[in-house]
Amino acid sequence: MNQPQPWYKQFWPWFLIVLPLIAVVASFNLLFLSIEHRDSLVSEDYYKDGKRINMDLRAINQAKQLGLQYELLVDDNNLTLTQHGGEPYLAALTVQFFHPTIKDRDFSNVITADGNNQYHIALDNPLTGSWEVRIEGFDKSWRIQKRLEIRDDSQYWLN
User: Fold this and answer.
1) N or C: which end of the chain has fewer CB within 10 A?
2) Cβ atoms of 69 and 86 closer than 8 Å
3) How far apart are CA 113 and CA 117, in angstroms?
4) pTM for this entry
5) Which one, of 159, 146, 140, lies nearest residue 59 by Cα?
C-alpha cells in the first residue's frame, strides 16, 4: 500500500498558503508607496489659509481695478510676458507656476522688463500641461492668476 505524502510535499496546501501571502506582500508594498509619496496638497492650518484667501482676493480685485492684462507667449524653453492693459508697470514681477499635483515641479521667478517692456523667463525644460499661473507686482499690491492648459508655441491672456 502507498503511504500518503506529508502535507508539505503536496500541492494544495502550498497553493492555499501562497495566495494570502501574496496579498500580505502587496499590502506592505502599497503601505510603503503611500508613506513614501505623500500628497502635499493638504493644509494643516485652515484658519491661516482662510485669512490668506481674503488677502488674495483683495490683490486680485486690485489688479482688475487697475485693468492689468498680460499676454503669455510659450516658445520652446522661453516664456515671454507682455503687458497690454492698464498703466505700464515698470517694476519687477513675481511669476509663479504651480503644478496641480506635483509640488516638486512648482517654480517662481522675479523678473524685470527689457527695453521693449517684455519680461522673459528661460526654462530648462519645455513647459506643457496644466498649470496655475500667478503674476504679482513686486510690492504684492495686485495679483493676476489663472489656470492654463499650456502647449508649446502657444499664446495665453492673463487678466
Assistant:
1) N
2) yes
3) 5
4) 0.67
5) 140
